[in-house]
Design brief:
There is one protein chain. With about 350 residues, the chain is an alpha/beta fold. It folds into 2 domains: about 100 residues, no CATH class; about 190 residues, von Willebrand factor, type A domain (Rossmann fold), CATH 3.40.50.410. About 25% of the residues lie in helices and about 20% in strands. Strand 10 and strand 11 form a beta hairpin. Helix 2 packs parallel to helix 8, helix 4 packs parallel to helix 6 and helix 6 runs parallel beside helix 7. The N terminus is likely disordered.
Amino acid sequence: MRLVSALLGLSLFACGDGRDSGSSRNNGGSDPTGSSASFVDPGETFCGDESHTPIQTKPLVYFVLDASGSMQATYGNGVKSRYIAVGQGAVDMVDSLKSVIRLGATLFPGKADQCGAGDEVYPPGAANPDAFVNAINVFPQGGTPISSTLEVVKERLADQKGPTAVVLLTDGAPNCNPDLECEASSCTIHIEDLCVQANCCSLSNCCAGFGENCVDHLAMFDAISALKNAGIPVYVVGIPGTESYGTVLDLAAINGGTAQETGPTKYYRVSELDEINKVFKTIVAGLIECRVSLETAPPVPEKTNVYFDDAVVPFDPENGWSWETEEHLGVIFSGDACSEVKGGRVEKIQVLSGCPTVVPK
């Protein structure tokens, strides 16, 4: 059922004081996502009489979030549930990067069936933090039908154009497959020490639904591989509750084409839920391109400038912009400029011709 209490909604909006400002450019270089002290404020005027429309490719970030009963569990001082903490982190990311991403979301399990495939609560489209927080405002309950959910997600994303990635987050192992049979070693109730019997998955009084509590890892791997083969990478995030399923999630990340090359796990393991927003931002920043294409080439490339909102960006292959090709139909951003784009601190990019190109002093 839907959670009508105002508590969840207010908590999801409370993203803290650390949100990125769309126009902040004076963070002194301490933020690895970018400082742009070298950008020049031109005042209220822009120099140039010909505009070249920049086309920025915005990736679709499609959340597949665990809303099962175990997400009601609290953490830390016991004030927040896992679900509220994840929601806060997701909303914070969307608020910070809304100008450079598209957004979509499915929550599992579906509200009509506690072991059914997840419901799409935010169809792919523009990233709107207010609409998103309302969309994910649900009461966690039910099981963890990851494989069936990813199967329907693949269908939902089949007609999407442009780069698309799935961010799969869970606090447990995939289950909810009634066709499975398993030994205790593959039964979630036994693994999580919720059953005192030797083989809980063969005892109805300890494992309701029998096979529905077996770890459904093979079907999950197949569903993830199908998305990857369709050109949709799957980023796997495991939060507290997944400690016993590290191998499963590592293999899931490998199948999704997103295995981390460094660190103790292939998937994104989150031990402190207060840091979940940073994990989301790290994943999404890797999807954002530091480039724009132009509808028309400037007639005089040496008299062309790029503006981020109200600041002119210097022509600088290391910390500014440069031409992508000799045809001057594309601009790439490097260093500080790239960090500004990936950090969501640029609301509007403009390319104007008519004045000498600004270069670093």
